[in-house]
User: Which sequence fits this backbone?
């Protein structure tokens, strides 16, 4: 069985082919899991490729920090989110991914740990003694009995010492959102339009704004390099012999299907509908948006939903336009339970339409933080529609799990909201 | 095994259970008749749930009165009376906090009563902004109900009332009185709304769970109650105790606890346990005798710890002997969770996906 998976999964590694056609005629569980692995390999590889582009753009920015090079770096970050968000459907259910994810896409963050913040951020938090530790401004920190020598800002310091220091999850020192904060700065527009507006001179050695530019440069370089090496590790994890690959293989074909549906359901339900969307609506709080510095939340949510669709349809469009296509849950359900299959397609479509409205609103200036403002009834409607369609989609995913009689599937709820 | 038997199959199985309950292998569902489940569900509704919501509602009425009295005459004694009314309301809420299905989930009522845990200090931050705005239009009932849930409920009121110098804060800022009374009325509006919905609507659903397609059968509804029980125990362990205890005595963190400002953290846990025991007891016929005995044994073990709990969590966390006592409490809660988990596993009751039902 292993060799069969390898043969199928490795097809996509062949250079030069525009479409990786896995066996999409069959509905065998083995073949469906093989497609799933092929998509994971391709999507993490795309995430790595685009993180390297970001790393290069950061290098260019640091050589000559100005508005143009900063914009290039920001655009590279935005582009890097496209494939990465589509991998989030692989997080839940795959323990190797879930344990690793905290270093890469942790959110929300108390950004005062990293750099200067505006007065409105406040000075203290009930739960976090490092709320305003400001590593960039301090090369030695001694808080609550924990002392940190931050004289050299290195990937090791960020990953091994600072990240989630003192056991506090919002002490996020690494990953996409730390980079986002370093490129955009705080979004001080509340629930009004506008994203963070950090000056390029925050990284200038000649004309430094907001002090400590040398250390800020070190931080940005270290955290971007770390993202590249973390993604490199995850690409390896999905190759034969890698931890995620072998873990999945050990579950058997039915266990593989259970993992796929756990990932789809948990991302749709607890994480996306709950933690990342409904909580924002309940609190009307711009701090509760996933890409809160860049105001790119609409895209992050859109590509999360697309990632769920990819897993179900057994199809993924790579960043270079190549397709990975293979045997799918969609086809299996079409064969086993056509009515349920049709229902699932309708759910996916509803979510996609609701997400497109979110993206369209952002294009008009109504980004996620604007939509969740209190008394923005139209915005609430847009966001609630997404929550509702994700909940419906999850219920149908549960029906599929029951229909396939899969065991040991547990859809995660939201940490903050419990069952929604 | 399919959990949805026909009534006839269920009856036959039930009768066979009566004669051979002692010899049955684990994995069997002990209660299979809809009427057996419904009898328990309605007893729980009438004897536990509705009275608990009524208690909350009546405490919230007293809270409004106390807030009005305090604002009519700002004094230490009226402030103490108001704090007392707040604590009584919180105690009542802790007695029914575990019910996280049904009317409490309508209109965000659960979060409007209590948004917690508040990992990022959103409540305090939003209260500061609201108070700075001095915006009276927000304090109109309809408008207030649409504000962030962070500023609407018991945690917001606690922050306002338990400042270092609350009295002088109120004396220097009229807005605090308006806001306090608005929050008290909001808590009352939510409490009476939930109570009314249980009495007028949900009780009927408990009697006829299939009506309206909400539940598949009476067992399905029972699972909501059992899930409430199991999740509440996990919540005490994971949210109310673990973060406060930290990894060790030196890393204890009082401010991670629920109600740390008013010093109600441990009283909350006590009120939770006192409300969970009768709920389990009501469903004991659904479990194997030895499993019921095991769960009850943990409840018995908990009694002396609950009776001897220190009044203040912050004091307890700063005292090594008392810290050790809290660690034991934590272990007992863990044991309770495990015993219930075992009891559930040994039956055919499947809590799996039901967090999604009844929304």
Assistant:
């Amino acid at each position: 069985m292993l060799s069969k998976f390898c043969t199928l999964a490795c097809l996509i590694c062949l250079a030069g082919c525009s479409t990786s056609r896995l066996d999409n005629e069959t509905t065998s569980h083995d073949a469906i899991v093989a497609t799933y692995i092929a998509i994971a390999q391709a999507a993490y590889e795309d995430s790595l490729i685009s993180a390297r582009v970001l790393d290069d753009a950061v290098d260019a920015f640091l050589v000559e920090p100005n508005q143009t090079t900063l914009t290039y770096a920001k655009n590279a970050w935005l582009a890097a989110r496209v494939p990465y968000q589509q991998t989030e459907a692989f997080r839940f259910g795959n323990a190797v991914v879930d344990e690793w994810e905290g270093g890469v896409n942790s959110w929300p963050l108390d950004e005062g740990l990293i750099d200067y913040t505006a007065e409105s951020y406040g000075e203290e938090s009930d739960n976090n003694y490092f709320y305003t530790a400001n590593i960039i401004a301090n090369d030695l920190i001694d808080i609550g009995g924990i002392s940190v020598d931050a004289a050299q800002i290195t990937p090791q310091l960020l990953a091994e010492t600072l990240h989630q220091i003192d056991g506090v999850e919002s002490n996020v020192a690494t990953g996409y959102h730390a980079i986002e904060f370093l490129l955009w700065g705080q979004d001080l527009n509340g629930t009004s339009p506008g994203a963070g507006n950090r000056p390029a001179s925050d990284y200038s050695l000649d004309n430094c704004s907001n002090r400590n530019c040398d250390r800020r440069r070190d931080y940005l370089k270290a955290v971007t390099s770390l993202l590249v090496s973390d993604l490199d590790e995850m690409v390896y994890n999905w190759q034969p012999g890698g931890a995620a690959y072998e873990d999945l293989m050990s579950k058997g074909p039915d266990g593989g299907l259970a993992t796929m549906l756990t990932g789809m359901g948990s991302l749709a339900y607890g994480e996306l509908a709950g933690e990342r969307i409904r909580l924002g609506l309940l609190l009307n709080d711009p701090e509760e948006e996933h890409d809160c510095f860049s105001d790119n939340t609409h895209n992050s949510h859109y590509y999360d939903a697309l990632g769920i669709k990819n897993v179900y349809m057994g199809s993924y469009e790579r960043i270079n336009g190549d397709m990975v296509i293979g045997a799918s849950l969609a086809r299996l359900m079409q064969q086993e339970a056509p009515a349920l299959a049709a229902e699932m397609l309708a759910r996916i479509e509803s979510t996609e339409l609701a997400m497109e409205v979110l993206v369209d609103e952002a294009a008009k200036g109504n980004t996620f933080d604007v939509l969740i403002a209190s008394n923005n009834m139209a915005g609430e409607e847009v966001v609630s529609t997404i929550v509702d369609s994700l909940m419906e989609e999850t219920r149908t995913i549960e029906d599929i799990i029951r229909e396939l009689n899969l065991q040991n599937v547990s859809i995660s709820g939201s940490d903050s909201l419990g069952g929604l | 095994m399919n959990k949805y038997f026909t009534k006839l199959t269920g009856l036959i199985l039930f009768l066979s259970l009566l004669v051979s309950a002692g010899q049955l292998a684990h994995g069997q569902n002990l209660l299979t008749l809809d009427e057996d489940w419904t009898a328990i569900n309605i007893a729980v509704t009438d004897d536990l749930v509705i009275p608990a919501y009524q208690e909350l509602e009546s405490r919230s009425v007293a809270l409004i009165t106390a807030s009005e009295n305090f604002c009519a005459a700002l004094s230490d004694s009226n402030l103490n009376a108001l704090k007392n009314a707040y604590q009584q309301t919180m105690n009542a809420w802790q007695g029914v906090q575990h019910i996280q299905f049904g009317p409490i989930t309508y209109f965000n009522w659960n979060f409007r009563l209590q948004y917690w845990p508040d990992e990022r200090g959103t409540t305090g931050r939003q209260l500061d902004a609201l108070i700075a705005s001095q915006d009276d239009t927000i304090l109109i009932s309809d408008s207030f109900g649409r504000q962030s849930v962070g500023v609407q409920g018991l945690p917001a009121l606690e922050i306002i009332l338990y400042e270092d110098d609350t009295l002088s804060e109120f004396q220097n800022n009229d807005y605090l009185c308006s806001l306090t009374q608005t929050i008290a009325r909001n808590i009352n509006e939510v409490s009476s709304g939930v109570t009314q919905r249980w009495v007028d609507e949900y009780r009927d659903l408990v009697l006829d769970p299939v009506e309206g397609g909400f539940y598949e059968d009476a067992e399905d509804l029972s699972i909501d109650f059992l899930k409430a029980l199991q999740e509440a125990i996990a919540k005490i362990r994971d949210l109310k105790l673990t973060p406060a205890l930290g990894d060790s005595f030196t890393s204890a963190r009082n401010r991670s606890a629920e109600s740390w400002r008013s010093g109600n953290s441990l009283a909350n846990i006590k009120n939770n346990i006192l409300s969970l025991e009768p709920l389990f007891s009501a469903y004991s016929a659904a479990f194997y005798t030895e499993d019921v005995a095991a769960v009850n044994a943990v409840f018995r073990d908990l009694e002396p710890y609950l009776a001897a709990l220190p009044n203040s969590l912050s004091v307890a966390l700063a005292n090594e002997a008392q810290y050790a006592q809290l660690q034991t409490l934590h272990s007992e809660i863990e044991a309770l969770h495990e015993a219930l988990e075992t009891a559930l596993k040994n039956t055919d009751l499947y809590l799996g996906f039901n967090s999604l039902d009844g929304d």
Q: What stands out?
A: Chain B has 14 helices and no strands.
